[in-house]
Automatic annotation (TrEMBL):
Family from the record: Belongs to the flavin monoamine oxidase family.
Species of provenance: Arachis hypogaea (Peanut)
Keyword Oxidoreductase: yes
GO CC terms, sorted: peroxisome
Protein name as catalogued: Amine oxidase domain-containing protein
Lineage summary: Eukaryota, Viridiplantae, Streptophyta, Embryophyta, Tracheophyta
SUPFAM superfamilies listed in its UniProt record: FAD-linked reductases, C-terminal domain (SSF54373), FAD/NAD(P)-binding domain (SSF51905)
Length: 489
């Protein structure tokens, strides 16, 4: 990677950005806060539009919730690993295509399991007995019908309720959907996977808004060589300061001043705030003056869930040659899901992915205990399983740099919170997955909000310098016909 990445210790230069001899340089400048997909993509776009950019990242690595680890000798993703929407409409498709990064498609469009279809899998009960495929398919159809019925419930009710509450109303109305024995456990497994998609439990997910996100066509493809090359490509040549945790953002009529934990300050015309929703919720960054009430309310009301990965590396493959393995149980909390990386990437690796309360509980364990917990789930399916030789455990919920895995619609809260989180406040622009009304909780969602923030920010700073060039939008997009912004006073 050729980006000019500087760690704290290497930094000897003046502690101001865009300042020469105490005077602001007559050159547009922007500070980008956060080096995940949104921050890196926004910085790239602004840099390419000839704006001076510095990117401040709290960790000693780039990528944020894209975290490809190479310690096994091959890439494995502890954060995002799927491209949701393998199609040319996906804003990341041109870049991934140009880099020649291979994808392994795990599902086509409209699967009840989102990122998998029911083609290559094996579900087991707690006694290690495989669930017949016909039963899994049959229960999948019932689950789809139940979800359709929840839509009717939604239309009847004026107030919002949780998905779980809606399910119980459906069961009261249609007792034939109440399944018994093994079929009930398989239904719980479907619910568990749905909860995994939202990184939240069904008693916290909004019935009104749960299907408001847009799914791009083309199904879901695993990034076989990991997601990090995309970040590194976007970061090439940028001024990036790792180990720079922002603690204060002051906005004035003529610029922004950003303070880092060690007291260092940076000054520029504007800033793009691309830190996770969890970090904003924790108020570990002080805004001066404080953010408007509507923005603070959006931060407080939008849900942020947890999904984690426990990655088990084995000496050799002893499990069936299917895309995923699962354990069904009485409750969705007790169900398990393992992604088989051997099928997709050829490595003897299984990825256990707990979500919601289960993920939260597992985060209380040590790495060793968490890996052992995952292995014990596997032993239920395959009693002769040999122990892993290496493991990796993510902690997205308690990591101070993320404080959650991704956003979701909480019960009783409107879907327009994502848009409110995105709307700029003076010369502060917001980007990141939680600011994407269309594609929340995704890498391409984070990327597309970065493009919006960068363009809004570019217009704003160039306006100040009288250098508005309407024919050079960021990232070489075609000049669009943009409607006039008219408000009624
Ligand atoms: C386990 C898991 C699996 C996922 N799977 C998928 C998937 O398969 N496909 C998909 O599309 N999406 C997936 N996602 C979601 C996806 O990873 C995120 O939506 C996306 O990466 C978010 O990008 P971002 O730039 O908004 O935030 P982040 O990537 O979190 O970037 C924010 C950055 O801000 C930094 N930061 C925090 N605080 C400060 C501070 N005070 N000062 C400076 N910097 C700070 C952080 O260190 C971080 O680098 C997954 C997420 C998780 C956790």
């Amino acid at each position: 990677m050729e980006s000019r990445v500087k760690s704290n210790s290497q930094l000897r230069r003046a502690d101001c950005f865009g300042k020469v001899d105490g005077q602001l340089q007559r050159s547009p400048s922007v500070i980008v806060i956060g080096g995940g997909m949104a921050g890196v993509a926004a910085a790239r776009a602004l840099h390419d539009a000839s704006i001076q950019v510095v990117l401040l990242e709290s960790r000693e690595r780039l990528g944020g919730r894209i975290h490809t680890d190479y310690s096994f000798g091959f890439p494995v993703d502890l954060g995002a690993s799927w491209l949701h929407g393998v199609c040319k409409e996906n804003p990341l498709a041109p870049l991934i295509g140009r880099l020649g990064l291979p994808l392994y498609r795990t599902s086509e469009d409209n699967s009840v399991l989102y990122d998998h279809d029911l083609e290559s899998y094996a579900l087991f009960d707690m006694d290690g007995i495989q669930v017949p495929q016909e039963l899994v398919k049959k229960v999948g159809k019932v689950f789809e019908m139940i979800l359709e019925e929840t839509d009717k419930v939604r239309q009847e009710l004026s107030e919002d309720i949780s998905i779980l509450r809606a399910l119980s109303i459906v069961f009261e109305r249609k007792p034939e959907f109440r399944l018994e024995g093994l079929a009930h456990k398989v239904l719980q497994w479907y619910l568990c996977r749905m909860e995994g998609w939202f990184a939240a439990d069904s008693d916290t997910i909004s019935l009104k808004c749960w299907d408001q996100e847009e799914l791009l066509p083309g199904g879901h493809g695993l990034m076989v060589r990991g997601y990090l090359p995309v970040i590194h490509t976007l970061a090439k040549g940028l001024d990036i300061r790792l180990g720079h945790r922002v603690s204060k953002i002051e906005r004035r009529y003529n610029g922004v001043k950003v303070t880092v934990e060690n007291g260092e300050t940076f000054i520029a015309d504007a800033a793009v705030v691309a830190v996770p929703l969890g970090v904003l919720k924790a108020k570990s960054i002080k805004f001066e003056p404080k953010l408007p009430d509507w923005k603070e309310a959006a931060i407080a009301d939008l849900g942020v869930g947890i999904e984690n990965k426990i990655i088990l590396h084995f000496e050799n493959v002893f499990w069936p040659n299917v895309e995923f393995l699962g354990v069904v149980a009485e409750t969705s909390y007790g169900c398990s899901y393992f992604l088989n990386l051997h099928k997709a990437a050829g490595h003897p690796v299984l990825v256990y992915m707990p979500a919601g309360r289960l993920a939260k509980d597992i985060e209380k364990m040590s790495d060793e205990a968490a890996a052992n917990f995952a292995f014990m789930q596997l032993k239920k399916i395959l009693p002769d399983a040999s122990s892993p030789i290496q493991y990796l455990v993510s902690r997205w919920g308690t990591d101070v740099n993320s404080l959650g895995s991704y956003s979701y619609d909480a019960v009783g809260k409107p879907h327009d919170l994502y848009e409110r989180l995105r709307v700029p406040v003076d010369n502060l622009f917001f980007a990141g997955e939680a600011t994407s009304a269309l594609y929340p909780g995704s890498v391409h969602g984070a990327f597309s909000t970065a493009m919006m923030a960068a363009e809004d920010c570019r217009m704003r700073v160039l306006e100040r310098y009288g250098e508005l060039d309407l024919f050079q939008p960021v990232m070489g997009e075609e000049a669009l016909s943009i409607p006039l912004l008219i408000s009624r006073l």
